[in-house]
Specification:
Blueprint lengths: L1 H7 L2 H17 L9 H11 L3 H34 L1 H16 L2 H11 L5 H23 L3 H9 L4 H39 L5 H10 L3 H35 L1
Length: 251
Amino acid sequence: MKVSFSFLKHVPIILFWLLVWEVANALIPSNLLIVSPRETFARLFVLGQTSSFWQSIGTSLGRIMYGFFLALGAGIVIATISAKFKIFHILVLPAINTINAIPIASFTILALMAMQSANLPVFVAFVTVLPIVFFNTHKGIVNTDPLLLEMASIFDVSPWKKVVYIYVKTVSPFILSAANAGIGFAWKSGIAAELIGVVRGTIGANLHTARIFLQTADLFAWTIAIVLLSYIMEKAFRLIFNRVVRIEVMS
């Protein structure tokens, strides 16, 4: 009942934006600029019946999420070391800030000169998500309640229990927040890298084809697929992460 109600309360919002989309389609006569929701979902249904559609999704999904999880792991490790050793934080912070400031297009073009195009989505997703995870995780660690840490020292709590019962519980919301934002950024940057690098057999390559041949319905259909995938990945990660943290704390 809870899941059903949660879904139903979003239906009016979805219908509202579909109506806005339909009105925009009626006001703009050119099908090169916009197509109706009906045409978009009809095209998405047709694409969904082809093996190349699912192969492209599988390829993009695997590479982008691989880059995301690499960034998640590296960001947590670097942030942990940075919070523990101030000199390391001083040294690594300029590099993280630089990565955070460089545009995705610049990273993609530079990466094209140094690696195979197939690795572009992994690399670009990694460098996009890394700063987000680093800053959030570092903030969570340094904001850990000092009274809890002092109490743990007084009662001679082991380092492992201190990590599990204090740091994990405190930092996990920060990591989850970073991951939720990071998945969206990973998808945007990863697809952009595929598009710029024209990486074969990917979502980005299909967007490139739709642009070249002015296939607006295909462009909208692939965009809807990207949005749905990003939403599903975010919800799936949140569910798995919360269960893993709960199990870790209870064990």
